TrEMBL record:
The keyword Membrane does not apply. GO terms for biological process: microtubule-based process. SMART domains: Tubulin (SM00864). Tubulin is the major constituent of microtubules, a cylinder consisting of laterally associated linear protofilaments composed of alpha- and beta-tubulin heterodimers. Microtubules grow by the addition of GTP-tubulin dimers to the microtubule end, where a stabilizing cap forms. Below the cap, tubulin dimers are in GDP-bound state, owing to GTPase activity of alpha-tubulin. This is Tubulin alpha chain. SUPFAM superfamilies: Tubulin nucleotide-binding domain-like. It comes from the Eukaryota. It comes from Trifolium medium. PANTHER family: TUBULIN. Keywords: GTP-binding, Hydrolase, Magnesium, Microtubule, Nucleotide-binding.
Length: 112
């Protein structure tokens, strides 16, 4: 990230996309946001974070990961956009007619 940022002539900020249900998205995402705050304190940081849903759960520790990473998200971003995992699934099913959405479908929808 530092190399890319150094090559920018007019760096305005960062867009960070992550999910906080799993250990990597919550732990590494929190660490990344913290480092960006330390190294690029005055640059804008926008976080787009997917939160797990009890209806669409893959792990029993998702609620813990979410709660523990929320503090870091709020502390180190200027704007936090919270995305509901179940709502994203519903959009894929109802609006896009995707019967069994995959993570690729969900990621593409969020990135648009």
């Amino acid at each position: 990230i530092r190399k890319l940022a150094d090559n920018c002539t007019g760096l305005q900020g960062f867009l960070v996309f992550n999910a906080v249900g799993g250990g990597t998205g919550s732990g590494l995402g929190s660490l990344l946001l913290e480092r960006l705050s330390v190294d690029y304190g005055k640059k804008s940081k926008l976080g787009f974070t997917v939160y797990p849903s009890p209806q669409v759960s893959t792990s029993v520790v998702e609620p813990y990961n979410s709660v523990l990473s929320t503090h870091s998200l709020l502390e180190h971003t200027d704007v936090a956009v919270l995305l509901d995992n179940e709502a994203i699934y519903d959009i894929c099913r109802r609006s896009l007619d995707i019967e069994r959405p995959t993570y690729t479908n969900l990621n593409r929808l969020v990135s648009q």
